[in-house]
Amino acid sequence: MKINKYLYGYKIYVNYGYGYEYECYELTRQNMKNQVKCYRENCKYPVKVTGGREINPDYITGGGK
């Protein structure tokens, strides 16, 4: 099975008054919704969600073929 170079998911940002700061990354929509719900219940600052990608830690480079 081929391992992709990137993992696609959702990035959560919170604005603490100095612009939006990256908080966490979730792979699934359900996990993202749970995290956003927790942030909105426990944090008075605005929360924003965007789609994004991150480097897959399991990806192995080809080695310069």
Explain how this protein is built.
The chain is of the alpha+beta class. The protein has a domain at 17-55. Helices cover 22% and strands 40% of the residues. The chain has one helix at residues 29-42, and strands spanning 6-15, 20-26, 47-55. The chain has a three-stranded antiparallel sheet with strand order 2-1-3, with helices on one face. Strand 1 (6-15) and strand 2 form a beta hairpin. The radius of gyration is 15 Å and the shape is elongated. It starts with 5 loop residues before the first strand and ends in a 10-residue tail after the last strand. The model has no long low-confidence stretch (mean pLDDT 91).
Key structural traits:
single chain; 65 residues; alpha+beta; three-stranded antiparallel beta sheet; 1 helix; 40% strand
> What would the principal axes of the Cα set say about the shape?
elongated
Our Rg estimate from Cα atoms comes to 15 Å
Distance between the termini: 20 Å
Strand ordering within the main sheet: 2-1-3
Helicity level, as a percent range?
A: 10-25%
Quaternary state of this entry equals single chain
**Mean model confidence by pLDDT:** 91
| Poorly predicted parts | none
Beta-strand content: 35-45%
List the helices and strands and how they pair.
Blueprint: E1 6-15, E2 20-26, H1 29-42, E3 47-55
Antiparallel strand pairs: 1-2, 1-3
Quick overview:
With 65 residues, the protein is α+β, with helices and mostly antiparallel strands. The protein has one helix at 29-42; strands at residues 6-15, 20-26, 47-55. The two termini are 20 Å apart.
